[in-house]
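Researcher: Go.
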Amino acid sequence: MTCDWTELPGDVRLAVETAIGRPVTGTEPATAGTISEFAATLRTSDGDVFCKAVRTANPQAWKHRKEAEVHPLLPGVAPRLEWLIETGGWLLLGFEHLPGHHADLRPGSPDLPSVAAALVALVERLTPAPPVPTQPFAARLAERRLWHLMAEHDRDRLDAWATARLEQLVRIEAAAPGLVDGDTLAHTDLSAGNLLVHDGRARAVDWAWPARAASWTDTASLVLRLIHEGHSPRQAEEWAAAVPAWSTAGPEAITAFAVVIAGVREHRRRLGYAPHLDALAAAGRRWVDHRLERDGRRPRTAGTAG
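Model: Structure:
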């Protein structure tokens, strides 16, 4: 739950206005993002600034610090970080305000070529990975074996689709860390809400969760989002082929990524984090079935992906 500008402590608001160099005359709350306790476009007499903030005691505050650390490495592919303020128990980041809209990932959207071009630019800019401390994506996946976790603790509560594939999913998931390693600084959390499009150009925002990974992993993340928005798995992968990095991923690696991301979405759906997670979990299942069928490994019986 985010707070309003007027609910920030007075000394915090004064520090922000001092950093901007002029008073804030109005605000427009952000429509995407779940980590920040305050996120809004700040209106001033001489241009706008985007500000996001979190209390320093918030367990998620480290993500804002990581974003501030990474942003100097992202000229041209992300909005410019203008200032960082830590005062009165708050951590605040001020960014160049980008006009535009969140990317439309539905079939036929005019934004799709712009998003593909942004993925190409990200790989070109961030390979090899700049020297910023981040956890390798492979290590992250090794720590988050969610199909294994569900097999160990929730097997009796899994539905027919998951039960029919569970041993296979656990086995493929275990191999995933060795297939996603690489030397690109990846965003790892791309979605329509983290892509701003203006005049045919897309830029990535919300760099709170970067990792060193294979160059194709951000493209793979968006394959799931395209399926969620109405593309078939085959159509989504055909779109991904417009990004040269996609061709560097072997079939086994793509299947492993699909299995892992489906496990993440299934686990979050079961925890009930947000209403839209049912649809994302269903998209993950459709992608997994497409990959297993392509590989000749789809079970012949039991549940279909909902």
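Model: The radius of gyration is 20 Å.
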